[in-house]
Write the structure tokens for this entry.
Amino acid sequence: MRLPRLILPLLAALATALAQPAAPAENPAPPAGPREAALARLLAERESPAALARAIASARASGVSEQAVLEARFLFHIDRRDDAALVALLPELLRQRDVFKIEDSAIFAAKEDWLAIIEYVQALAALDHGAKDDFKHHITEAFWLSPRQAAAFAPHIERLRLADAMRAVTLDFSVQLAPLAAGEPVTLASLVAGKKALLLHFWSPRSRECEASLPDFRATAAALVSNNIAVASLLPDDSPPLLAEARALLQPGGGPPPGAWLIDPKLKPLARELRIQNLPTMVLVSSSGTILFNGDPTDDPFWETLRRLDASIQRPKAAPPPAP
């Protein structure tokens, strides 16, 4: 149910294919030399910044261009969803802008694609500083220069609009939610009383992403509960088949992860108020009802927001999935 996230690397790979004509079937491509092999390793490196530095050193020693090295660094940070590192690259991207040579590019088919990613990173920098007009200008330029990468730029526009909308939301803690298991309805107020904050986990047993992420969520929920943050998981509706599937999914591995397991109310559902479009989604709510975070639980900003609440909170390693 979640939209693909790592779109830019896929489009960059597409650009590579477009930039390099396929060899005729009767004339297979010759074996890659040391430079090509070093470049391939560089473009594929995702393990760690230290591993990337080693790959860069090897690539430079093999004659890989600085243009290709900069492109590889861009892909590394994009694939790791590290917006801060991308913004830090901006001075180098701007310096390279006017000396770009298509023959030195490792991934782009046209200079416009290269200029588009510079506009894209400028848009990220504007977003980071809350400069909405500058963001709109640079993201529009990125669209104009490289329409085929539009799907990569769109999530940032959605993120900006969602952040704007969430600033106007204050949750009504008196709302009552029925438990997934039998029992009396509970209020959000009863869950958040005496707690630092409340985490709402929107999920469904019919989402493969939700099922796959349950070990991660179990570790996250345990860490938050131990740090005095309330956790509530919300199922989108109360249809009998969905309830049965949800209960069956949560039984293995010692039962459901920590926290309350509830059903989103049909009247004024929280998912609608919080603009939930993908599952799973985490919404971190302050003890006063304001929205601190709304988005993908794997995003670094989620953990940054939690650490602002409590500096001792650390991102746990995922628990191993339960045995079949």
